[in-house]
Structures are given as C-alpha cells and as structure tokens.
C-alpha cells in the first residue's frame, strides 16, 4: 500500500532564512510525488511534482523539492522564506498503478518577520 | 489552465436534512473526479473516486448510502450528504482529472456545517 509521512506538524522559520519541510513515502515501484499548499479555508494549490528525470524539481513561488530514492524522501525547500509562505503544506504520493493520490498529514509552515 | 469549481462554498444545514455539493470542471472534461474530506487541522482523506457514467468507488469506512456521489457528465459530479449530522461538519474538496495519467486539479472546497 502507498503511504506518505510528514514527520513535522509545524515548522517555524525566520523570514529570509532557508526552509525545509520533510516528506517520506512508501510505494511499490516508481512513485509520482507532489507538493501542495493550502491557505485558510481554501482548496489546494499545486506547487510541484516529480515523475521522472532530475531529482531536483523546481516549482511555483520559488519552491523546489529533492527526490531521494535511497532515503525515500521528497523534502520541500526554499532558499529564502517569505512571510507570505506561511500556510499548510501537503506532500502526496501516487502509485503509477493506482488511480488515486494519497496525502500526508500536513505541515504548518510559519514564517516570522 | 484547468479550473475546478465547487458550489456552494459554504452551507449550513439542520441535522436530519440532506445537502448537495456540486463539483464542476470548467474548461476540461473530467473522466474521473475525487471527493476528499478534511477535518480541522488535519489532512485530506479520500472518500470516493467516481468515473463518469459508472458507480463511485468508496474508500473503506465511508458509507456509500450516506454520501451519495453522482458523476453524470464529464464536467459535473455531485456529493449529497444524506440525513446530515453534526459530525458530518467538515471541509469537502473535490478534484478532477482528464485521463488516468493527467494532472489532478482541486476545487476550492465547500465548508459544511450541520447544526
């Protein structure tokens, strides 16, 4: 069965500092991996995805994520955080054979001025 | 781009009544639509997957007679919460995709409050 874990409920970072939001996954075969962001009372906004190719994936709003097959991780990163990045972030995985996306528990990112 | 809308964005209903939530793909035809439920400060839990013209596939633990899903056209799916109870209060999010290998787009969500 496919699953995804976000070990941190909350991440706090000062504005201008780099940020990392962690994600590990478990899936049979090669995964499709995604990051989404959710602002209060809003739906999900797509940030980036990994399907194949370069392990470093660049996405929206300056975010990037690194696929690490040996560690089964797909951590989200940004070199310099903005206060406006404060939101709820979800990692998600989809097995190529499965028809559905499974979400992690979410990590609340808080950027202080 | 691909846009998915939901209506209503917020709804309040009384316990025991039924409420319908619509999910529309505005600029593409969606062969598959998904319904998720999100409790406060929690993740999205997949409720069911619906393919146009066929019965929805429900996830384990989701009551199909309580959460009726209809996907009658390639641009519209509806979720009807029947005999609603306060514990059904939640944020319901739909998503849609064109084909099995295409991107999955999410709607803005519907907040249901059952009093």
What labels would you give this structure?
heterodimer, A: six-stranded mixed beta sheet, four-stranded antiparallel beta sheet, 0% helix, B: 115 residues, mainly beta, seven-stranded mixed beta sheet
The residue-averaged pLDDT of chain B reads 92
Number of helices of chain B: 0
Largest interface: A-B, 17 and 24 residues
Order of helices and strands of chain B: EEEEEEEEEEE
Termini distance of chain B?
37 Å
Number of strands of chain A: 12
Helices of chain A, by number, come to: 0
Major sheet characteristics of chain A: 6 strands, mixed
Helix and strand string of chain A, N-terminal first?
EEEEEEEEEEEE
Residue share in helices of chain B? under 10%
State the separation between the terminal residues of chain A, measured CA to CA: 41 Å
Judging from the principal axes of the Cα atoms, what is the shape of chain B? globular
Approximately what portion of the residues of chain A adopt beta-strand conformation? over 45%
Quaternary arrangement of the chains shown? Answer: heterodimer
Q: Could you explain how this protein is built, in words?
A:
- Chain A is an all-beta fold and 113 residues long.
- Chain A contains no helices and twelve strands.
- In chain A, the strands form three sheets. In chain A, strands 2, 5, 6, 10, 11 and 12 form a six-stranded mixed beta sheet that branches.
- The model of chain A has no long low-confidence stretch (mean pLDDT 91).
- With 115 residues, chain B is mainly beta.
- In chain B, the strands form two sheets. In chain B, strands 2, 4, 5, 6, 9, 10 and 11 form a seven-stranded mixed beta sheet that branches. A four-stranded antiparallel beta sheet of chain B has the order 1-3-8-7, with no helix packed on it.
- In chain B, a hairpin with a 5-residue loop joins strand 4 and strand 5.
- Classes of the chains: A mainly beta (113), B mainly beta (115).
- At the A-B interface, strand 6 and strand 11 of A face strand 4, strand 5, strand 9 and strand 10 of B.
